[in-house]
């Protein structure tokens, strides 16, 4: 069973999401909070596998909670009522593992929770030029960087699928190579981007304009 903590300032939203997830066979909301400050104590006691966190809340927003508790929270999916590009990359920089709109289907929400619980990410495989430009301006970065080891076309393709939340087996099924070959490509991507895990690879790929 995947244990979820749900943090949202609107009671009706929490009730609706909890009710939907109760329809699944393997996901349960085990604790709730109405803001980031309240969530700290709740999360510490819940032993959750995944945190569903509203982006914008009074007192302490989801982004602020991520910043304050960076590295201490369960794998986190940010929830919002609109496609907020700024919140997307701010959340990624603060350590979020996924980003979903509240109006998605139960199937996609449940699949997203399962993916993040298994160690995947849930970021869009590509950003609009407007989003990318805003991210680069906020980060003070240009893309792609000159010099250093550059990703090949296949590595860039794999990185985009990593950003979409696919694991090695799913990437292999999508592209054709064996899971072992994909694993080698992922290792090369991490080495070239000088990062230690898939989430940081996605962030670095966004910074450098590969995705």
Q: Can you walk me through this structure?
A:
The protein has 211 residues and is α/β, with parallel strands linked by helices. It has 2 domains: 2-117, Response regulator (Rossmann fold, 3-Layer(aba) Sandwich), CATH 3.40.50; 129-208, Winged helix-like DNA-binding domain superfamily/Winged helix DNA-binding domain (Arc Repressor Mutant, subunit A, Orthogonal Bundle), CATH 1.10.10.10. Helices cover 51% and strands 13% of the residues. It has a 5-stranded parallel β-sheet with strand order 2-1-3-4-5, sandwiched between helices.
| Structural domains: how many | 2
What CATH architecture of the largest domain would you give? 3-Layer(aba) Sandwich
Question: What is the 3D form?
Answer: globular
Q: In what order do the strands lie side by side in the largest sheet?
A: 2-1-3-4-5
Domain HTH luxR-type: 144-209
Pfam family, one: GerE
Modified residues (4-aspartylphosphate): 54
Protein name: Response regulator transcription factor
